[in-house]
Write a structure and sequence with these properties.
The chain is mainly beta. It has 5 helices and 39 strands. The radius of gyration is 26 Å and the shape is globular.
Length: about 675
Amino acid sequence: MKKLMIGLILLLPCTLMAQRLAKGLRIPEVTIYGKRPMKDIGVQKTKMDSVMLKENIALSMADVLTFNSSIFVKSYGRATLSTVAFRGTSPSHTQVTWNGMRINNPMLGMTDFSMIPSYFIDDASLLHGTSSVNDTGGGLGGAVKLSTQPAEADGFGLQYIQGIGSFKTFDEFLRLTYGDNHWQTSTRIVYSSSPNDYTYRNHDKKENIYDEEMNIVDQYYPKEKNKSGAFKDLHVLQEVYYNTRKGDRFGLNAWFINSNRELPMLTTDYGNENDFENRQRETTFRGILSWDHLRQNWKIAAKGGYIHTQMKYDYKRDAGNGVMTSMTRSRSKVNTIYGLAEGEYYIGRKWLFTANAAVHQHFVESRDKNIIRQDGNKAIVGYSKGRTELSSSASAKWQPNERMGMSVVLREEMYGENWSPLIPAFFMDGVISKKGNIVLKASASRNFRFPTLNDLFFLPGGNPNLKRESGWTYDVGASFAIGKENVYSLSGSANWFDSHVKDWILWLPTTKGFFSPRNIKDVHAYGMELKSDFTIALKKDLHLTLNGTLSWTPSINEGEPMTPADRSVGKQLPYVPEWSSTITGRITWKRWSLLYKWCYYSERFTMSSNDISLTGKLPPYFMNNLTIEKGISTKWAELSLKGAINNLFNEEYLSVLSRPMPGINFEFFIAITPRF
């Protein structure tokens, strides 16, 4: 509770400082007038601007979301699996799109955000709860929208960034651009590598201290190195856009990934890293062709895409004779064909009608080879399946005047041969005061999530009789915005949400020695989200920006006990922090910039019973990052020098049980943009 109060106190400056500085500078009150986009009627959205995405060029989208949003980012270690979850739901309840195409893995239903470099993303938006129904189905928690934009270059452009950091980490970034009146092209390349052998204190082991007579006189937690955690990641993004300047634009986006990562040893593993090999290799290609046709009051668009992902996981160990023996060889291939058609039509300034239809055709092959059976022989298990996923929606948005807006959305989903009932969503907002732009918002929606392919067909354990998850979500909130152009701005929002999810899917152990999914829970997730943003010009060339978020998210199992000994009912779901908070402070002066980031997660339980044993609970933790940057102009190039300190106060923490995170570490970057 003490740490939580600290977080609340740290969040207050976002508002209090605005009041004090405004008073000190004698800035008069002003009224902000603006027309709200009809597309966003009643929508709860968090938008990441380009500054947030590029603050630390080496960060993944997992890191960006950790420090700039209220959603929970669950990380299995540095440069390992990172997932995100909204409002007390699971990662599979979060839909993720890239340029409109859903990129959730159809086998697991989730997305690894550690494999998305922020350098490749130009726009990022979070759609909370019901708001995700406008864009994609199946997001009981919400949706993350990622996209790229034309470079808008004039002639040739080049940017090269070299980064070096702790643990012998090297990051290289290259972008080539070309543009004229019709064409815009961009090539981006990211290459990162590191032995990733950071030091941590292992709280799962204890070492004894002996006296001269070999009596135990004390104990301590030893320091160990992250073993078997090396990685080499290559990303290449090619974009081509052609604008006719007559209302048509054509686009090509192609993203190639080649990753070779070791999976680190657990803190509970007493083995020698030289006695085994635990490696995951991924090759992914994502490609999208797009066409946008714009006219004065209507728009149509079409997209076609393709995703190919090949995953290879190998676990080898020394059987005792010095020879590495293959224990597990897991291979999976995913091929997805994507198509989208959508349209918008305005009737005057009061009505907007939209409609879209999308299809994802998945072909999945999963094989686990060399599985050791109880009789000592090896077996091959897996499945080969295809699944068609259809999604269509239509909406009507009405804004009778400047103060009020209403929207109705109807969505239909099909997964395989199973159709969801009609999914309705209702949105409303209204300006209750133009002075301060005070807006009230409310929404409600029904939603569904179908089981993943692994849920249904994984061998052993898949359950083809699973029911789809279903739920209702309600949102109500308020926002305000005040300011004076080129002097200061202050905005904030507060949202309450209430969500019920029935037939929650959970993998449970069976009497046959493996896990199998079942519909066992009814989950009630509710809470509050606060957000504030403040910017002020302190004096000429000196600007201060503060951003803060605070989230309270109880997520309670309200299902029936599975057994008389079941203690999970009425308890917080595992790995869902009840409290989280972020603060970002930025000071810019001429070509200098100082950035401070802070985030907080409350305790997380690892067991559904909320057991407070040594392994049943992960303690709360704070994170602090500091970055300083200096821009330099020369006749031949624009230069940027940047230094970053991550985990400033050397916090010892875990996001996932037995998966330690690095302590204090450092990064340095130099960016060169030649003048042509």
